[in-house]
Amino acid sequence: MTLSTTLKRLFALLCSAALIAWFVLGGDREAQLAALGQRLARIDGLQLAGLIAAFAATYLLRAGRIFDEFSHFAAPPTQPLRADPPAEGAGKVLGRPGDFSAGHVRFASILRLSLIHNAMVNVLPFRSGEATFPILLNRWFGVPTARAIAALLWLRLQDAFVVLALAALVWPDLPAALRAMWIAAVLLAAWGIPHWARNHDALLDQASHSKFGRLVTKFRSALAESTHGAGRSWLWTLANWSLKLVAQAWALSLLLGASLQSGLAGAMGVELAAILPIQGVAGFGTYEAGGAALLRTHGIMLADGLQACLILHLFVIACALSAGALAAVLLPGQSPASSSTTENTHA
């Protein structure tokens, strides 16, 4: 483990410890619990059902975005699944629609993968749950490791770009010129990464004989495949985040007895904290601090903001774990073609 990784993990532990210290030492624990209970009581059964339905819809939108990218990924029955691409013919294993049988990957299987991945990301420390995504893509659908990792990277980059662009639109008291520059920088990065992947520098081809050159070329090719349907994936991502932010804003406004605009500021704060490279364990500490910081710009006291964001965080984790558990029990894992191929391979 490198020094930088160790320092990041220590900082993550400190962030979570700070939240625990605030809750335990910031006053009478019974009073703190009573305050949390009073805030939670502001949400009635119908509103709670609406929030759960909204989060369920975001899960479907996220799964739809992944399904749109990987619905063609099913190995032909005569071809065994491979964990990694062979030395030659790498273009065929990157999953172009013409190289794999279409229609074998079921949406239910992708939904199961997405929900399990979401649950793991929410509870495992130090973002280690992210590994679930490429591992399950490879095991269930035969997606090569490099392709799966590139897909995860592009998925998270799209999330970050959308959150950053929306943050620029709603950030309070931001000069118009700076707001425009912020959005332009996000749009430039969102365009530049797929453009680089699809139109790589010719120098990489010349350096492909080196180990580093082959690695970069392989990853660029995988990223180019992942960004092939970028237009549709942007629509899926925008729909998902618009609904998710509105749902979280609604929850915070109910918990705080504040306006939806104030709730939106808090929702942007928790999501901006969620994309930071350093976070608390399972997000605890940084998540609440990010939301409370932006709620302060709307006159919400820090303690009130921390309480509301803590409840929201627990609700998000409860939804993620419940959905992940139901998916693991009720939804199919492998597609029929992948399952039969795996059986033939082990025979």
UniProtKB/TrEMBL annotation:
Native source organism of the sequence: Viridibacterium curvum
Membrane topology: Multi-pass membrane protein
Subcellular location: Cell membrane
Parts forming coiled coils: none
Protein name: Lysylphosphatidylglycerol synthase transmembrane domain-containing protein
Transmembrane segment boundaries: 42-61, 148-171, 177-197, 310-331
Chief subcellular location: membrane
Top-level taxon of origin: Bacteria
Keywords: Cell membrane, Membrane, Transmembrane, Transmembrane helix
